[in-house]
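Q: Here's a chain of 327 amino acids. Please give me its 3D structure as C-alpha cells.
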Amino acid sequence: MKSKKISTKIKTIGIIFFLLMLSIILTTIYLNQKNKKDATTINIASTQSMLTQKISKDIFYNYNNKNLGFVELNEDVKHFSKNLNLLKNGDKLIGIIKVPTPEIEKQLGKVESLWQEFLSYIIAYQKNASNNKIQTKKSINNIQNSNLELLQEADILVNFYIEYSEKKIDYIKQFQYLSAIALLILIFYGFTQFRRIETHAQEFLNFSKQMVENPDNTHLKTLNINAESEINEATNTLNMFINKVNTAMDYSAVAIEQSKNASSKLEEITDEFDKVLDELKDSTDVTQHLDKSEDMVIESTEELINSTKKLQKLKDELDKLVNSLTR
C-alpha cells in the first residue's frame, strides 16, 4: 500500500474497518439468535426429565386413589411424545433445531427406545388398573424400574445439548477475541500509515520553508522523497521549476561574466588608441580618422556596458522571481 494514493489508503483502511465491524456485529447477532434457539431446545429436553418423574407420580397417585381417572396422565404422555418429536425433527417456527450432532442423535435414539418401553408399561397399567391387581402391580414395578433408566438417559441428553451450546458460546468468545485483535491490528496499521503520510507532508513543507529562507539566492537543491503519489507529483513539479530557475541563473551569470570581460578588453583597446592619438596628434587627417575610430570604440563600449546592465537587471529579476515563488 506504500505506492498508493493517500485517498486510496484512507478508503481502503475505512472499508476494511467497516466490513470487520459489520461482520462482528452480524455474526454476534446470528450466534446470539442461535443460542436462544439452543436455550429453547435445552428447556424442552429438561422438560422431558421432569415429565418422566411426573408421569411416574401420576401413576402412583392414581394407583393409591382408585377413583381418579387418567386425564392428567394422558396429557403428560402426549406432552412427552410431542417434545420427543420436536427434539428429533425440529421446528423452525418456534426455533427448535433439528438434531445437531451425531452424539445427540444417538442419545436421543436411546431415550426414544426407552420411552417406547416405558409407554408400553403405562398402557398396560391403564388396561389392568380396574380388573387385574396382579398385572397392575407388575406394571407398577416395570414402570418404577424403567423410570429411573429413562430419567438418567434423559438427563444425559440434556447434558449433551448443554455441552453443544457451551461449545458455540466458546466459539463466540474466540471469534470476538480474534475480531478484537484484528481491530487492534487494523487500528495500529492505520495509525502507522497516517503517521507516514504526516511525515512525508512535513518533509515537503520543511523543504518549502528552506527555499523561502534561502538568504543568498544560491542554487536551489531538489527534493528526493519516496512518498504517496500526490506528494510525489507535487515534489516532481517543484523540482522541475527549481531546475529551470537554476538553469536561468547559470545562463545569466555566464552572460554577465562574458559582458564584463568584453568591456575590460574594450577599455584596454581604448587606452591603446589614446596612446596612438597622443603620438599622432600632429597629423590632421590621421587625427580625424582616429577620432572617428575612437568614437566608434566608445560607442561600442557604451553598448556593451548597457548590455551588461540589462543582463544584470535580468539576473536581478530572476532572483526576485525565485524569492516570490518560494514564499
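Q: Can you summarize the key feature?
A: The CA atoms of residues 25 and 123 lie 52 Å apart.
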